[in-house]
Write a structure and sequence with these properties.
The chain has a single domain, classed as 3-Layer(aba) Sandwich (Rossmann fold), CATH 3.40.50.300. Helices cover 34% and strands 24% of the residues. The chain is built from 13 helices and 12 strands. The protein has an 8-stranded mixed sheet, sandwiched between helices. The radius of gyration is 21 Å and the shape is globular. The protein binds iron/sulfur cluster. Iron/sulfur cluster binds next to loops.
Length: 331
């Protein structure tokens, strides 16, 4: 499968009064053409920082990319100047956020906003931009797009506003769409409709999607592959089936057990005890060790090596690694 985006050993830190927070600590993944890769984890695990770093939206300072590469079309986005990355942003890689109102200007009609996005990246006439805006609004399921083009954001419901934001993100036909908690602010029915829209748009346009979410229910509906993040690292990565039916990392299993499902009986729902580690001075070994019921001595001392369980399925956990036994005997 063609790789559209490659993230290699990405490290991102933030300077604070308390010291340096190591928010992303060596993240690696590929995004394939036409797939949806979900990055899941608790808040503060580094998933949003990872996605914002791809778009180079991390405020520098206090943020700092301390290492790694983000390869898109043979270019390293990290090495690009702001003027160069601005051409990529929106045109090749687009992003949508949780709250559609932050992306929409309440004082300008949605038609003008969509057309402005088009004309920033493409040299087209006003009529051509309008035609494209109408086409995009109907693609995302806005009825009567010619009329609605003249309306302001407050004249739309929350779900409709998110559809408009999706239209704005897709208007320049990007290769990659990054969606950061795109349905969190919406009620469940609208959420399902927006997820359906993502699937639909992907079929029609072939766009590759990185979906950032804390919600495994969302992931179950749309993701092809899932990366589970904990304390700034991807601890397990696999297809949706592998992560949901053969989870190997104790944290992934904990996440799955802590999400309510219809087939669950009373007492099946088990929250993960404890809290994530302090990322001012992250542990040298497995960051989940303090919360892990299977932790061994080696876990505290050495970060687990990556174990490959199939072509797609990989996990960072000593439980899966024969080499752990040798290391245990060394200590
Ligand atoms: Fe638990 Fe050790 Fe695996 Fe970490 S490496 S998840 S502490 S068993």
């Amino acid at each position: 499968m063609e790789k559209i985006l490659q993230v290699r050993d990405l490290h991102v830190s933030f300077s604070t009064y308390g010291g340096e927070v190591k928010a992303v600590r060596g993240v690696n993944f590929d995004l394939h053409k036409g797939e949806t890769l979900a990055i899941v984890g608790e808040s503060g695990c580094g998933k949003s920082v990872t996605s914002q770093t791809i778009m180079r939206l991390i405020p520098e300072p206090p943020g700092r990319i301390t290492g790694g590469e983000i390869i898109f079309k043979n270019m390293d986005l990290i090495k690009m100047k702001e003027t160069e990355i601005r051409k990529i942003r929106g045109a090749n890689i687009s992003m949508i956020f949780q709250d559609p109102m932050t992306a929409l200007n309440p004082t300008i009609t949605i038609g003008e906003q969509i057309m402005e996005g088009i004309r920033q990246h493409e040299k087209v006439s006003r009529d051509e931009a309008k035609r494209k805006a109408i086409e995009m609004l109907s693609l995302v399921g806005i009825p009567n797009p010619e009329i609605r083009l003249k309306q302001y954001p407050h004249q739309f419901s929350g779900g409709m506003r998110q559809r408009i934001v999706i239209a704005m993100a897709l208007v320049c036909e990007p290769d990659v769409l990054i969606a950061d908690e795109p349905t969190t602010a919406l009620d469940v029915t609208i959420q399902a409709q927006i997820l359906e829209l993502f699937r639909d748009i992907q079929k029609k346009t072939g766009v590759s999607i990185v979906l950032i979410t804390h919600d495994l229910g969302v992931v179950a509906q749309v993701a092809d592959r899932i990366a589970v993040m904990y304390a700034g690292k991807i601890v397990e990565l696999g297809t949706r089936r592998e992560i949901f039916y053969q989870p190997q990392h104790p944290y992934t299993r904990g996440l799955l057990q802590s999400v309510p499902r219809l087939d669950m009986k009373k007492g099946d729902l088990i929250p993960i005890p404890g809290t994530p580690p302090d990322l001012f001075s992250p542990p040298v070994g497995c960051a989940f060790a303090a919360r892990c019921p299977y932790a061994m001595e080696v876990c505290d001392r050495v970060y687990p090596l990556k174990t490959y369980l199939s072509n797609h399925h990989q996990v960072d956990c000593w439980l899966q690694d024969e080499r752990a036994k040798k290391l245990v005997s060394t200590y």
